[in-house]
Amino acid sequence: MTAAGRQLASAPDLATPSPVRAPILRVLPGTPQAVRVARQIARQLLGDEHPATETAVLLLSELVTNSVMHSKSGAPGGTVTVALCSGPAGILIQVRDDGGPSEPRVSAISADGAEHGYGLLLVDALAERWGTISSPDGRVTWCRVAGRPETKV
Predict the structure, then answer these.
(1) CB–CB of 138/80 below 8 Å?
(2) N or C terminus: which one in the chain shows less Cβ crowding within 10 Å?
(3) How many domains does the chain fold into?
(4) What pLDDT shows up at residue 101?
(5) Are the CB atoms for 25 and 83 separated by under 8 Å?
């Protein structure tokens, strides 16, 4: 009630922010099975009710696959570290690998119907932003997914 005795109408709930959840950090073996485990980790953090769960699971899967396939992490004893954080600004996904001979880059679409090489195209198309940070000790490839799907312009 206001001082005049009238109740103020509240603004409609147009964009309820996604809940903040504790970040998750996991070190996984650099094997193809790490992709499945990473997907489970994302679902554990976000839950099925989060509007961007499917996008985050897909992009995390692509980044972990790239780390296992194209970095030293895929060699015996290699590891991939997955970090996920969810909050009102969206979902931050980070995948750290043991580095490799080249930087991750978006490939051109292949005319020969290749089944591989589209991972970073998906990341580039679906993430709000993404990038790579390299050092002599390894590389982190990250992306941010909007808290609501289809908000990238």
Answers:
(1) no
(2) C
(3) 1
(4) 79
(5) yes
